[in-house]
Amino acid sequence: MTERLPVLIIGGGPVGLALALLLARREVASIVVDARGVEAARSDRRLLALARGTVDLLRPIIELQVVGAPIRSVIVTSSGEFGRVVITEDDIGVGPLGVTVRYGDLVAPLARACEGDPHVTTMRPCRVQTIEQKPDAAHVTLDDGAKVKAALVVNAEGTAVTPTSTSARVGIVADVTVAGVDAGEAYERFTREGPLALLPLPGPVAADGCQLGLVWCMSASSAERRAALDDRAFMSELQRALGERKKVILRVGPRRSYPLHEQARPTLRAHRSVWIGNAAQTLHPVAGQGLNLGMRDAAQLSGAIAQATVAGRDLADALESYENHRRVDRGAIVALTRRLPGLFATRAAPVSMGRSLGLAALAAVPDLRREFARLLMFGVRA
Predict the structure, then answer these.
(1) Could you tell me the CA-to-CA distances from 95 to 51, 98, 236 in Å, in that order?
(2) One domain for residues 334 and 191
(3) Residue 75 covered by a domain
(4) Domain assignment of residue 11, yes or no
(5) pLDDT band at 217 (very low <50, low <70, confident <90, very high)
């Protein structure tokens, strides 16, 4: 009987861990190698937005016992233009559009589920030193000298950007308290500088307003200037950018900035190696699609591997099918996140009118709005 080799997954973030658990449900063994210790991952407080499709995908593999905040509506506007779209949970059926969670609060139950599953071996902190692809297997050397023989190597480690690379675009993130916002409301505000998003925050409710997570995209020079502002001046500029008189910025927490690197690999596979999640494509944060696209990568890849396993075929044969099935969804979401910020940033009058008419059409035509909501929540379904 042919030896059944494990799948080696590089990266113990949400996408890598989810893939390991999806494979385990199909009785496919995997080894997860992650450079960070689990406690460092659990203490990560970045805010993630899980679309409805991702919540549905995770529900069978973990109990989502995390402190999350449901997203019940998304309000989309464009600075200085008419047209306002409100997407609600009624547009996709029963249940919220999605949920926001802290990175560590999602990793923790995924890591616990992996630790308790006999099909998953987790190695932290640990790094892959070399990968040698042979006709029958991938031979992997780890930084402690250990050697692993794997059927496939899945790179789910994250964005492949060199430490010296720079980006002309920057995102500012912070927790803010806003008066005049209903629980579960999220905002996507397009400005000529770049998109601005406010997302419900998990955790206790403020007495005088709602706690929201801010993601504000802008040029590197604008981010540098705003980093030097005190909280009062920063809140004033944020209030003007938000453009909502009834929604008042009350407080802003500590701010941090990060470069908005974007990349998409032209191919997702190379013999026994395959790339998923941010390792395959790193997206602009507009519309919060990056993690959700990565989770669909994991679901599709686990299905392709399971089919090859049942048929008794070499798992490397599953990668062509995987890449073909991801082409449409991946292409559509990559194009959407690349083009939207530029489309809403231009000041050209014909484009401005087109933006307003497009928003007005989404608001006025329920079927069009529902299809757009389904694209954001579930991607392009095969």
Answers:
(1) 11, 8, 35
(2) no
(3) no
(4) yes
(5) very high
Are 118 and 29 part of one and the same domain? yes
272 token code pair: 């026994």
Sheet containing strand 147-150, strands side by side? 128-133, 138-142, 147-150
Alpha helix stretches (DSSP H) within 45-201: 52-58, 103-115
Instruction: Report whether 307 contacts 319 (CB < 8 A).
Output: no
Q: Which of 323, 320, 315, 328 is nearest to 4 (CA)?
A: 315
In a domain, 176, yes or no: yes
Q: Where a domain ends, among 229, 259, 289?
A: 259
How does pLDDT run across 24-81, given as a tens digit for each residue? 999 999 999 999 988 888 889 999 999 999 999 999 888 765 668 999 999 999 998 8
Expressed as residue numbers, the domain containing 200 is 169-259
Domain count across the chain: 2
Mean pLDDT (whole number) for 241-263: 93
- With both helix axes pointing from N to C terminus, report the angle between 290-311 and 318-345 in degrees, rounded to the nearest 10: 170
Predicted confidence (pLDDT) per residue in 349-382, tens digit: 888 888 888 888 999 999 999 999 999 999 997 5
